[in-house]
Amino acid sequence: MNAKVQLMLWMAHPVMELSLAAIMVWRKLHRTFPVFFAYILCEILQFSILFPIHQYGSDLVYYYGYWIGAAISLAVGFMVIYEIFQDVFRPYHTLKDLGTVLFKWAALVMMFVAIVVAAASTGDQSPLGQAVITVQRCVRLIQCGLILFLLVFSRYLGVSWRQHSFGIVLGFGGYASVELAGNALYAGRLINSPVSGYLYTSAYALTILTWLGYALLKSPAREASLSLMASHRWEESLTDLQHPAGGDSLIPMFEGMVDRAFSRSATARGSEPAPIVSKPSIRKAPASAKLEPTFSGTRVRSQG
């Protein structure tokens, strides 16, 4: 009974994915998220190849076909994560450039680890399966980290939970969490292989339903709140680090500080600066004049 339910769920995946692809074309989302649209088409193509082999072909062909398809899906899924990252950080060019460098290094490290694991694999599992499982765990961890990142920093980035990018990450992150938990339970021999297969198939069906729901929703505009000032400060700080000011730029900076200080002092007094008064000219008294003391000072009195 479990195998029949799992087979029915597996056959329902391409039907829901075809519906999702049609909705994306109708809402023109395939232009906004072309890599995610290619991922959906890749999953449909993979099912159309693997399902006949599973039903009528040999187990060996299905085994290698499954792992090759899983490797392709993981590669495209990693590119989907990068696409969502680019969409989230679209207003912040410097943060987006930093994320691009980090993603390239993450992809390089994952490929290196997969090659090392495949070369050093011993036991019943084939080197291809060991490499794919290693990359799969790395990608699932990145997907879980991305959904946690959006949940924590969505308010600072102006990303709403109703936006399409958030829905795509929510689907991937939810499925990645279930798969990682299932792998841990299976490694601890708490569940067997049929139960884990049923768990993964059901979780992926819920993931497609999540994507369908978000594809039907109208994505709101990005929020403009005071909390976005922190993101702008990060952007400006990284821009200053990327393009530092020259050594001869201190003099204009100090001149600007002095000008601002004078303007603040004039504003604080509440009056305009006093006009410049010329120095009074001193007229020499005639020789016949003599000084006469007075109560208020010295007065000059002319003779005759």
How much strand content do the residues show?
under 5%
Structural class: mainly alpha
Strand order of the largest sheet: 1-2
Radius of gyration: 36 Å
Provide the succession of SSEs: HHHHHHHHHHEE
In helices, the fraction of residues equals over 70%
**Overall structural domain count:** 1
* Overall pLDDT level: 75
Distance between the termini: 138 Å
Choose one word for the global shape: globular
Strands, count: 2
Individual helix count: 10
Biggest sheet details: 2 strands, antiparallel
Low-confidence stretches: 225-231, 245-251, 272-304
Account of the 3D structure:
- With 304 residues, this protein is mostly helical.
- It has one domain (2-218).
- It is 73% helix and 3% strand.
- The protein has ten helices and two strands; from the N terminus they run H-H-H-H-H-H-H-H-H-H-E-E.
- The protein has a two-stranded antiparallel ribbon.
- The longest helix has 31 residues, at 127-157.
- The protein is globular.
- The chain starts with a helix and ends with a strand.
